[in-house]
Design goal:
Blueprint (H helix, E strand, L loop, with lengths): L10 E4 L10 E6 L14 H10 L4 E3 L5 E3 L2 E6 L5 E6 L13 H12 L17 H5 L10 E3 L4 E5 L7 H4 L10 H7 L16 E4 L7 E6 L13 E6 L3 H9 L5 E3 L2 H6 L6 E5 L2 E7 L9 H9 L3 H9 L4 E2 L18 H4 L10 H14 L5 E8 L2 H14 L5 E8 L1 H9 L5 E7 L6 H4 L16 H11 L6 H17 L4 E5 L1 E6 L3 E2 L2 E2 L6 E2 L4 E2 L1
Parallel strand pairs: 2-11, 16-17, 16-18
Antiparallel strand pairs: 1-2, 3-4, 5-6, 6-8, 7-8, 9-10, 10-11, 12-20, 13-20, 14-18, 14-19, 15-19, 21-24, 22-23
Helix pairs in contact: 8-11, 15-16
């Protein structure tokens, strides 16, 4: 996604309680700042994890992304699969006391799709009636295929079947919004905990918009509050993993994420847990710049990187070497159950070949009339990403005539810079919003706001359009479209895939029922508790 910081690092800590009382607070450290809690505008993984706990949509996603009841008590689907009717629960409330109604969903979806909002996630609505036309300013926002039938019934009309539609309904971009609150705070809406209201298991407290600490507090207006076991989930930004490890060893943390070095040292420890992530870390070069428009230069940069070495020794922590943009383990073929990454043919530029890389780079420089190339590589300032930047600098500078300067900056700044194409080259990442390859492939289309490299290919756009429209009701045809699209993007080096991330944790045995999903919002604390 650009959605795009190096995934959220959670460290669960038990806060002190009075003797004899059950511990009901978990303290979590994260390596990234909270950017906004406006569901129409955020793109950050960490923010989606917060929104997934302070808000609720038509459905919640439980363990293994199982669709569970949320604000909707029931749903029906028309025979052609294009019309969904939802009945909403009448006891759902916002934290300001307002009832959660069907109109709150209508308002939220229209606001996100409105071109004036400039949401980077509007493309996820593609397939809902008139969504694409609204995005392209060819239809009014009011024509979107969502309708409130009174307060507690909602109808959604699609242009074609969307196989992953229910999974989308559990993603925060599709959650309702309280119009009264949006209008009250205007441009300040969602910029602090006090400029937002909440309808989920928790409410957000003590976030000023710039501070490095915030709290999820049990929401006493939540319809299912009797099943929420925790009183608080506290977040604190900690960017040095050695600090977390020390606190864990002192029994001040219940759960600590490890760095690459730490995970190697503790691979035999019984508390060690691996978590795979449906993600893709990659280099995006700004293809508006003359040098990076050259395919051979992009291919050379890809070919000079030793991905197995990068994944296993530099990043580690469960990272997987990959020659794919779509993550491994996300989706399988409807024909024979083959993983998507196995159906795609990776080009030669995705394999380590320093000799060929140097030849291509020399040819590319000649084609663009340069004798050398100097650019700045932008990346976040977390510990592991600094290590990654240093490796990439070393690897890339093996190309004769290439000099790389590093610029590691805070997460909230890098997202803005990437979205506005204010970089020469940057390490970016995308985390799956749901369990389907299109969640990755969509962002490389020409007009997608998250296509930060600026790569454009008409054939690619046509394949993705076909998978979302004409072939949407034929599972195998749709699959073939997506396989062809990724093969094309890799061959043309739209981006330079690096690795699929994973996490290594030390987890104390008394931390129970924290739900972790590899796709979408990763963490669900609704049922979590300390034993």
């Amino acid at each position: 996604m650009l959605a795009s910081i190096a995934g959220i690092s959670l460290i669960l800590v038990g806060c002190g309680q009075k003797t004899g009382q059950q511990k009901k607070t978990i303290t979590t450290s994260t390596d990234s700042e909270l950017t906004t809690v406006d569901p129409s505008k955020t793109t950050a993984v960490g923010t989606f994890n917060v929104l997934n706990n302070v808000d609720e949509g038509l459905f919640r996603l439980g363990k293994n992304s199982k669709v569970e009841p949320g604000i909707a008590t029931s749903s029906t689907i028309s025979k052609d699969g294009k019309t969904y009717t939802f009945k909403l629960r009448k006891n759902a409330k916002w934290s300001n006391g307002d009832p959660v109604t069907a109109q709150d969903f209508v308002y939220s979806w229209r606001r996100t799709l409105n071109p004036k909002t400039a949401s980077q996630y509007g493309y996820l609505f593609s397939g809902i009636k008139n969504a694409d036309k609204i995005q392209n300013k060819k239809a009014p926002v009011s024509s979107l295929g969502i309708k409130a039938n009174g307060k507690y019934q909602l109808t959604v009309t699609l242009e074609q079947r969307i196989p992953y539609f229910k999974l989308l309904m559990g993603f925060p971009v599709f959650f309702p919004q309280n119009a009264k609150t949006v209008n009250k705070y205007g441009s300040k809406y969602g910029t602090s905990s006090g400029t937002q209201v909440y309808n989920g298991p928790f409410t957000l407290k003590k976030w000023t918009g710039t501070n490095l600490n915030w709290t999820l507090k049990k929401n006493n207006t939540y319809w299912d509050k009797q099943h929420v076991k925790l009183d608080n989930v506290k977040f604190k930004v900690v960017k040095d993993p050695s600090t977390g490890l020390n606190l864990f060893n002192q029994d001040n943390l219940d759960m600590a994420q490890l760095s690459a070095t730490q995970s190697k040292q503790m691979k035999k420890k019984k508390d060690l847990v691996s978590r795979q992530q449906s993600s893709s870390y990659y280099i995006a070069v700004n293809q508006r710049l003359k040098a990076f428009k050259n395919l051979k230069i992009r291919q050379a940069m890809s070919m000079i990187i030793n991905r197995p070495l990068l994944a296993n020794r530099v990043v580690a922590g469960g990272a997987i070497s990959t020659d794919s943009f779509v993550s491994k383990g996300l989706a399988v073929s409807p024909k024979d159950g083959t993983d998507f990454t196995k159906d795609v043919t990776a080009p030669a530029s995705m394999s380590y070949n320093p000799t060929r890389a140097k030849q291509l780079f020399k040819q590319g420089l000649q084609e663009v009339g340069l004798k050398s190339l100097h650019f700045t590589l932008l990346n976040s300032d977390t510990y592991d990403q600094k290590q990654l930047s240093e490796y990439l600098q070393s690897a890339l500078e093996k190309l004769p005539g290439l000099h790389v300067t590093l610029n590691n900056i805070p997460g909230r700044v890098i997202l803005s810079r990437q979205a506005n194409h204010q970089f020469q080259a940057t390490v970016a990442n995308w985390f799956a919003d749901f369990s389907d390859p299109i969640t990755f492939l969509n962002i490389l289309t020409s007009k997608n706001p998250s296509n930060i490299s600026g790569w454009k290919n008409t054939q690619y756009d046509q394949l993705i359009d076909a998978s979302n429209n004409d072939d949407g009701s034929n599972a195998q045809s749709r699959w073939n479209d997506m396989v062809k699209a990724q093969t094309l993007a890799l061959k043309d080096q739209a981006i330079i895939p690096l690795y699929q991330s994973g996490e290594k944790w030390l987890i104390k045995s008394n931390v129970k029922d924290v739900i972790y999903n590899t796709a979408g919002a990763n963490y669900n604390f609704k049922d979590a508790y300390i034993k």
